[in-house]
Each structure stands twice: as structure tokens, then as C-alpha cells.
TrEMBL record:
Pathway: Cell wall biogenesis; peptidoglycan biosynthesis. It is an enzyme of class 1 (oxidoreductase). One of its GO terms (cellular component) is cytosol. This is UDP-N-acetylmuramate dehydrogenase. HAMAP family: MurB. The lineage of its organism: Eukaryota, Fungi, Dikarya, Ascomycota, Pezizomycotina. Its cofactor is FAD. It comes from Penicillium angulare.
């Protein structure tokens, strides 16, 4: 008897935070590794295009039809793998909501991912783009990834050093796309041995506003949640996928040429000698923040966020993204790169 169900002609609008309509030819809910073994041994799987879907928070279906199989990662579980006086190592199912994992750590006074509070999506998607926010990244706590290779039908444990983590990228986004991340192993720190990171952006201002003089893991998480809610629209109210574009990493020569255009250009300097220019600043500099076009627009809160104003189709959002990319390149000579995975 089969343990998997092939759902046909599935409306994926509820499964993407842009809230755009699209129909998948098939959808299979993956709840354990046994489901994957059965799946890869089916003729239909090998003859059909497939897409792995987590929380749908970093994806844009640009067509009305996805003529393939969506594998929806619903593998659950948060388990303590090991523990010592200072650290706790957790094994977390790929289908667990990232926000639920952060809540678990915060409630248990475990530090390391509180700066990543309220990031949408699933744990299994987190290593793909090495999620990060407010001065922290998944790479700070990652130990290893347990992945199912859809080509070979084998489970692989991939240590952090082999994940090729970088700014909003990894081996899973480049050369190892044919795996489903079944579990992520992270090492977090017990509160009494942990110092919170409040150095990034407006964190200290918000803590001061909240009357917090000695931040804890919990109070910092609360401040981050407040910051995100103020800056980013709630996908439940306005369809969006958070930051649509990556920040621009440039060398010294490009930095100097941009400074010739505007001496007030904000830069964040990296240890390797490169600089990061906030993509939001570039987009706002070109006048896109708050602009609307029928069903789509750029958020008035944050220039990096493209929004579905009600009845947008994916192709309209992709069209707007392309307009912005062309304009920024024409005006400033810099090419923006989408952070969102656009499915064509």
C-alpha cells in the first residue's frame, strides 16, 4: 500500500506568501524519509519536472501553471541531539516553521538565532540561502544538514564546511539543487554563557524604546519582532516574500564610482575588502519606493519588498522586478540580483 498521495491540479495560492494563483499538476506531501524513497522509485517522478516547496516565503510562481510535481516538505520534529554544560545541539525537521524553532530556543533560553526572529519559511529552506538578518546568519549556528538526494535516492549528512555557505547562498542554491533537506542540525548556547548581539541597525534604539537596559535572549527577540513588523508588511494581509533582491557586493573600484554619483551612499565593509551596498537604498534612490502599478507595487515601508496589492498574477510581479533591475542598472550601473526564487 502506498504511503504517499498524488494530489492533482492543486491550487498553490495558499502555499506561497505572494498569494499569487498558480496550479501544480501534482503535489506530494513529504512527511518522512520513507515517503521520499517511495517517490524516487516511481516512474512518474523520473519523467516529470519537480520542485521542492517549504513555506513558500521565498518563491514566485510567475506562470499560471506549474507542469510538474511539487514536493511539499512537511517533516516535523525538534529534538535534543546532545547537550553539555554550555551548548545544546538540536536536530530539527525540515518542515518545521523557522519561527517555531526560534520560539523554541527563546522559550528555553538558548541563544544563537534570536536575531533571526520572525523570518518566514521552513527550517529546510534556511540553509539554501543561508538566511540572515540583523547581524546574524544561519551559518553562525549550523552544524550539518541531513539531505535526501533525489537523483541517487540516498540520505546524505553534509557538514557545515561542505555547505559552501555565503551571503544568501549555498551549495544547495548552486550545484546541489537535487536534494531535499530533511533535517538541520544546529548548536545553540545556554543563556548563562551567551552574549546577545545588539550592534546591528536600529536594535539598540528599539531596546531603549522598550525600556530594556540589559537585553536578554527573550527581550532581543521581542525587539527584532517589533522591528520586522514595523518595516515589513504581513504576508497574511499583503502578499509579499520579504526582501526581493540581494544587497550588492562590490569591490573598491565600483564603490568609488558609486560615491562619485552620491557621496552619501551607505556602505558596509566586509573583512575580505569588499563592500555591501543596501539594495533598498539603490531602489529608493531611483524613486521606486511606494510606487504602484495596478495590482503590484513596491512597499512604502521598505523598498526591497514587492507587494501583491490584491489580485496580482506572478507574471506581474516578475515584470515589476525586471523594470526595477533595468532602471537601477541604467541609472547607477549596478545589477540587482533576485533573492526570491522565480519559477518560470
Amino acid at each position: 500500500m502506498s504511503d504517499i498521495t498524488w494530489e492533482e491540479n492543486v491550487d498553490v495560492q495558499p502555499y506561497n506568501t505572494f498569494n499569487v494563483p498558480s496550479t501544480a499538476r501534482w503535489l506530494v506531501r513529504v512527511q518522512n524519509i520513507s515517503n521520499l524513497y517511495e517517490l524516487v522509485n516511481s516512474t512518474r517522478f523520473h519523467n516529470t519536472r519537480h520542485l521542492i516547496l517549504g513555506g513558500g516565503s521565498n518563491i514566485l510562481f510567475s506562470n499560471a501553471q506549474f507542469d510538474g510535481i511539487i514536493l511539499k516538505n512537511e517533516i516535523q520534529g525538534i529534538k535534543i541531539q546532545s547537550e553539555d554544560d554550555k551548548h545544546v545541539t538540536l536536530r530539527v525537521g525540515g518542515g518545521v516553521e523557522w519561527a517555531s524553532l526560534v520560539d523554541y530556543c527563546v522559550q528555553n533560553d538558548l541563544g544563537g538565532i534570536e536575531n533571526l526572529s520572525l523570518i518566514p519559511g521552513t527550517v529546510g529552506a534556511a540553509p539554501i540561502q543561508n538566511i540572515g538578518a540583523y547581524g546574524a546568519e544561519l551559518s553562525d549556528v549550523l552544524v550539518a544538514v541531513e539531505a535526501f538526494d533525489l537523483d541517487s535516492g540516498q540520505v546524505r549528512t553534509i557538514p557545515k564546511d561542505e555547505c559552501e555557505l555565503k551571503y544568501r547562498g549555498s551549495i544547495f542554491k548552486e550545484t546541489l539543487k537535487s536534494v531535499m533537506i530533511c533535517a538541520v542540525i544546529i548548536k545553540v548556547v545556554k543563556a548563562r554563557f551567551y552574549s546577545v548581539n545588539t550592534d546591528y541597525g536600529l536594535i539598540q534604539d528599539v531596546l531603549l524604546e522598550l525600556g530594556v537596559s540589559t537585553p536578554t535572549i527573550r527581550s532581543l527577540s521581542g525587539a527584532i519582532c517589533l522591528l520586522r513588523r514595523r518595516r515589513l508588511p504581513d504576508p497574511k494581509s499583503i502578499g509579499n516574500a520579504g526582501s526581493f533582491f540581494k544587497n550588492v557586493v562590490c569591490d573598491e573600484s565600483i564603490r568609488h564610482s558609486i560615491e562619485c554619483v552620491d557621496t552619501n551612499t551607505p556602505f558596509y565593509h566586509k573583512p575580505d575588502g569588499t563592500s555591501v551596498i543596501p539594495a533598498a537604498w539603490l531602489i529608493e534612490k531611483c524613486g521606486w519606493k511606494g510606487r504602484q502599478f495596478d495590482n503590484v507595487g513596491v512597499s512604502s515601508r521598505h523598498a526591497l519588498v514587492l507587494v501583491n496589492l490584491g489580485r496580482a498574477e506572478g507574471c506581474e510581479i516578475a515584470w515589476l522586478a525586471e523594470l526595477i533591475m533595468r532602471d537601477v542598472q541604467a541609472r547607477l550601473g549596478l545589477l540587482l540580483t533576485p533573492e526570491v526564487n522565480i519559477i518560470r
